[in-house]
Write a structure and sequence with these properties.
The protein has helices at residues 2-19, 28-34, 36-39, 43-74, 83-102, 107-133, 136-139, 146-171. With 175 residues, it is mainly α. It has a domain at 106-175.
């Protein structure tokens, strides 16, 4: 469900950029105006409605996906009637809401901070995945090969380096 929300949001944003030749950073208003030759004078309204719908669906499905991930990680029942599932879902929703309110309601800043936290977590998660992929009792004959481990280590290093550079930029240490 989180993947579907992300796909909808990405499609709404990427389609005009791809088909209308827009590049770089543009505003939603600009994209709406650029769609007018294709959709007529209601294009900005239609684009705005699509963007709103994508954001609304993502704001519900992403926390739900996080709750399902927590259920899988902690061995909870993934049933939505499960109190732990509802609590995890509510916690992620509340965290997003509080982040938006504390950051002055700026969706841009919330998204940047969310991605920065992902940048910190991704290399750690890949290391855990590599550790699991090397356990014979879990993977059996499909256990990682030496080549897979070397490639996995390279991926971890590249992700960590890219994350460090991006976080340094966000912190203002690099321009």
């Amino acid at each position: 469900s989180g993947g579907v929300g992300g796909l909808v949001t990405g499609s709404v944003l990427i389609t005009p950029l791809r088909f209308l030749g827009l590049g770089g950073v543009v505003s939603a208003a600009t994209i709406g105006q650029r769609l007018e030759p294709l959709l007529g004078p209601t294009a900005p309204l239609l684009f705005g409605a699509g963007l709103f719908a994508a954001g609304l669906t993502s704001s519900v499905t992403a926390p739900l996906a996080a709750a399902y991930a927590a259920a899988g990680a902690f061995g909870w029942s993934p049933d939505l009637g499960n109190a732990r599932m509802r609590l995890a879902w509510g916690f992620v929703l509340a965290t997003g809401l509080l982040s938006a309110l504390l950051l002055g309601g700026s969706p841009y800043r919330v998204i940047v901070l969310a991605q920065a936290s992902n940048a910190l977590l991704l290399p750690v998660l890949v290391v855990f995945l590599l550790a699991i992929a090397n356990r014979t009792e879990i993977m059996g004959r499909f256990r990682n090969s030496r080549l897979s481990n070397v490639l996995g280590a390279i991926v971890v290093l590249v992700i960590a380096a890219l994350s460090a550079v991006q976080l340094a930029r966000l912190a203002g240490f690099l321009e």
